[in-house]
From TrEMBL:
Biased composition (Low complexity): 26-45
Gene name as annotated: Ahcyl1
Cofactor binding notes: Binds 1 NAD(+) per subunit.
Binding site for substrate: 117, 191, 216, 246, 250
Domain S-adenosyl-L-homocysteine hydrolase NAD binding, residue spans: 251-412
Chain spans, region Disordered: 1-65
Gene Ontology MF annotations: adenosylhomocysteinase activity
Cofactor: NAD(+)
Protein family membership: Belongs to the adenosylhomocysteinase family.
Protein name in UniProt: Adenosylhomocysteinase
Reaction equations catalysed: S-adenosyl-L-homocysteine + H2O = L-homocysteine + adenosine
Gene3D superfamilies assigned to the protein according to its UniProt record, in alphabetical order: Adenosylhomocysteinase-like, NAD(P)-binding Rossmann-like Domain
Entry's EC annotation: 3.13.2.1
Length: 490
């Protein structure tokens, strides 16, 4: 029977053809919804010749049609993807087991806008197991794994998402999650701030009744601080992006592992002896530089901040201006979170077959629009790989049209996402259960105690054993034996 099983699996794979040819995305699409995060592991067909999911009548095996996904028939395949992700997200599963009995989210009605991938599915199902009801849309038009969305819909989650949504679909899905008869959200889980923005603008009465917002991206957090500054934030919000367990892990270690993956899958480039310039030496830049250096690349760093620049020098990297090295480098990687870091002038001066890509959150770091001019020829050579050809024959290799490289071209280590997801789950529990008045109408960081709890949940995977302070030592350091061990500003 083993063999038959395997044959079935093979069939399962051939059923989902991958489609490499993509229409060029020159049509304008709002920034946050296009910061692509698509998983290369997705076998789903993203062709646009079919009927839009919005036109289809689909029901799951329990007869519910409270969802909108590409194809509900892919649910079984998606369930396997979720089970694979669960293997590497043991902390989230152990939180699920620990808190299942007391249901800390009973009565919580969460409206969520995140990437719909196998990893976030583990988070969504954990929140449901803890007593929450949820409605979910995708925060990015490319990042949905269709088969995972199908598995969630089959399991009874109201999910509205598919890969390759249009701008109109994107907002329609968000609206379907918020605007429901007889169901009113009381918590928001957001990645990028689009959902918060939509509820704030379109449904102010719903917004006022929300008990808390949890936001995990730089962009979304920035929008929250703007609302707060203007005195328009009438609910407490938790900034998960700047919690230690997100910054120091998702940004540093995740990029250290995924930068090479994204570059190799798209270009098969050899790094030994290559000259690479990394723009920005924050957590993401540090991760990228460490990985490239380990493979024997010659790495330059550009930086505006003297502290980060000095760190780069101490780590053995030359700190330069981009214009000084642009003629000789083989690869340019942006990690600044800024805009126009690589300009048309830089692109004009690059040498033939230089690879250009972005590891920062938004697609503004490389001035891609300046390349859409009549004298330059664009050639799509692979999925997410464009050759931009100058009149003299010089070509520049542009990856993912300047969007997030690792999430557009490869995948992200599941374990790191487990850390971020556990942090999000705890932030939701904290805000939902906080007594009246503990959190005012402002943006908060996750309490250090919770950051430390998230970290401790992940230690068993490594069979790591913590040392405990003696009473005497704790007194000497002025700490509680059980933490928090770090000051609030860490």
């Amino acid at each position: 029977s083993q063999q038959i099983q395997f044959a079935d699996d093979m069939q399962e794979f051939t059923k989902f053809p991958t489609k490499t040819g993509r229409r060029s995305l020159s049509r304008s699409i709002s920034q946050s919804s296009t910061d692509s995060y698509s998983s290369a592991a997705s076998y789903t067909d993203s062709s646009d010749d079919e009927v839009s999911p919005r036109e289809k009548q689909q029901t799951n095996s329990k007869g519910s049609s409270n969802f909108c996904v590409k194809n509900i028939k892919q649910a079984e395949f998606g369930r396997r993807e979720i089970e694979i992700a669960e293997q590497d997200m043991s902390a989230l599963i152990s939180l699920r087991k620990r808190a299942q009995g007391e249901k800390p989210l009973a009565g919580a009605k969460i409206v969520g806008c995140t990437h719909i991938t196998a990893q976030t599915a583990v988070l969504i199902e954990t929140l449901c197991a803890l007593g929450a009801q949820g409605r979910w849309s995708a925060c990015n038009i490319y990042s949905t794994q269709n088969e995972v969305a199908a598995a969630l819909a089959e399991a009874g989650v109201a999910v509205f998402a598919w890969k390759g949504e249009s701008e109109d679909d994107f907002w329609w899905c968000i609206d379907r999650c918020v605007n429901v008869d007889g169901w009113q959200a009381n918590m928001i889980l957001d990645d990028g701030g689009d959902l918060t923005h939509w509820v704030y603008k379109k449904y102010p009465s719903v917004f006022k009744k929300i008990r808390g917002i949890v936001e995990e991206s730089v962009t979304g957090v920035h929008r929250l601080y703007q609302l707060s500054k203007a005195g328009k934030l009438c609910v407490p919000a938790m900034n998960v992006n700047d919690s230690v367990t997100k910054q120091k892990f998702d940004n540093l270690y995740c990029c250290r592992e995924s930068i090479l993956d994204g570059l190799k899958r798209t270009t098969d480039v050899m790094f030994g002896g290559k000259q690479v310039v990394v723009c920005g030496y924050g957590e993401v830049g540090k991760g990228c530089c460490a990985a490239l250096k380990a493979l024997g690349a010659i790495v330059y760093v550009t930086e505006i901040d003297p502290i980060c620049a000095l760190q780069a020098c101490m780590d053995g990297f030359r700190v330069v201006k981009l214009s000084e090295v642009i003629r000789q480098v083989d690869v340019v990687i942006t990690c600044t979170g800024n805009k126009n870091v690589v300009t048309r002038e830089h692109l004009d001066r690059m040498k033939n077959s230089c690879i250009v890509c972005n590891m920062g959150h938004s697609n503004t770091e490389i001035d891609v629009t300046s390349l859409r001019t009549p004298e330059l020829t664009w050639e799509r050579v692979r999925s997410q790989v464009d050759h931009v050809i100058w009149p003299d024959g010089k070509r520049v290799v542009l990856l993912a049209e300047g969007r997030l490289l690792n999430l557009s071209c490869s995948t992200v280590p599941t374990f790191v996402l487990s850390i971020t997801a556990t942090t999000q789950a705890l932030a939701l529990i904290e805000l939902y259960n906080a007594p009246e008045g503990r959190y005012k109408q402002d943006v908060y960081l996750l309490p250090k105690k919770m950051d430390e709890y998230v970290a401790s949940l992940h230690l068993p995977s490594f069979d790591a054993h913590l040392t405990e302070l003696t009473d005497d030592q704790a007194k000497y350091l002025g700490l509680n034996k059980n933490g928090p061990f770090k000051p609030n500003y860490y």
